[in-house]
Design brief:
With 263 residues, the protein is an alpha/beta fold. The protein has eight helices and ten strands. The strands form two sheets. An eight-stranded mixed sheet has the order 5-4-3-6-7-8-1-10, with helices on both faces. It has a two-stranded parallel sheet with strand order 2-9. Strand 3, helix 2 and strand 4 form a beta-alpha-beta unit. The longest helix is centred in the middle third of the chain and has 27 residues. The radius of gyration is 18 Å and the shape is globular.
């Protein structure tokens, strides 16, 4: 049966990437509400989208530490080989043991379909950091049936935050239908999706206005990406952390799931 959940995480101040990492992995292992369960052995790889980002590389590192095979999806093989290079100092094109690097486009059905072959779960921590340009807000670009038809910049949140989830949901739904037609047994990977706490705020909220104005409507496209997962009928968990900061979590600072919604 389908299950879905979303959680918003919050604390005073900024959270470190390591804190968010722990929430991502806990959601992957047991789902919201059962974070303390140990991770079972996984013979199939876990697909990590956004594997070369600050949170993504920590996700990969910790999955490897738990001896869970990883398929790291990246746009650039050179960057992936640098970021995910062996901790023993081999570097270069030698990834950590247990890590398979695949290169592709998050909005390509063919690339995602190949990357999803044989995986047990998907951890999607991909996100766009693109500062807005004045030309983004020209009236004829904001209005119309296809307001993003003008954009070919694949770093735009429209592609990374939204269209990637459309593609992922479409490919997984197709795989589910194919399996059901072939043998009646449906085993579709669960999705753990990381967005941000401001995604749940109204569009008129000052925080939303600031982020969307400065960062190419990133919150808007994250929200639409979440909506795609909710309407997909797939098994998913959405995590909305607060602000991210580099470095370890300060002593005595607790992390709390402040809202859990099941669809």
């Amino acid at each position: 049966p389908r299950s879905g959940a979303s959680a918003a995480t919050s604390r005073l101040g900024m959270k470190s990437s390591a804190v968010v990492l722990s929430l991502v992995l806990e959601a992957f292992v047991a789902g919201v509400g059962a974070f303390s369960s140990p991770a079972p052995p996984s013979p199939s790889p876990v697909l990590v989208l956004g594997s070369t980002g600050k949170v993504g590389r920590l996700v990969v590192e910790n999955l490897v530490a738990q001896k869970i095979p990883v398929r790291a999806f990246a746009r650039n093989r050179t960057k992936a080989s640098e970021v995910l290079s062996s901790p023993t100092g081999m570097g270069g094109l030698n990834p950590w043991e247990g890590v398979e690097v695949v290169v592709g486009d998050l909005t390509s059905e063919a690339d995602l379909s190949a990357a999803l072959e044989g995986v047990s779960d998907v951890i999607a921590v991909s996100g766009a950091l693109r500062f807005s340009k004045l030309s983004d807000f020209l009236p004829w670009r904001l209005l119309g049936n296809d307001p993003m038809g003008w954009c070919s910049d694949k770093t735009h949140p429209y592609f990374v935050n939204y269209l990637s989830m459309v593609t992922l949901a479409k490919v997984l739904s197709a795989k589910r239908s194919q399996q059901s037609d072939e043998d009646g047994e449906v085993q579709v990977p669960k999705i753990v999706r990381l967005t941000g706490l401001s995604v749940g705020l109204p569009g008129t909220n000052p925080v939303s206005l600031i982020f969307n104005t400065l960062l190419s409507l990133t919150g808007k496209w994250h929200a639409r990406g979440e909506r795609v997962l909710r309407q997909s009928g797939l098994d998913y968990t959405i995590l909305r952390p607060g602000g991210l900061a580099d470095g370890a979590r300060p002593p005595g600072v607790a992390v709390q799931a402040v809202a859990v919604n099941s669809d």
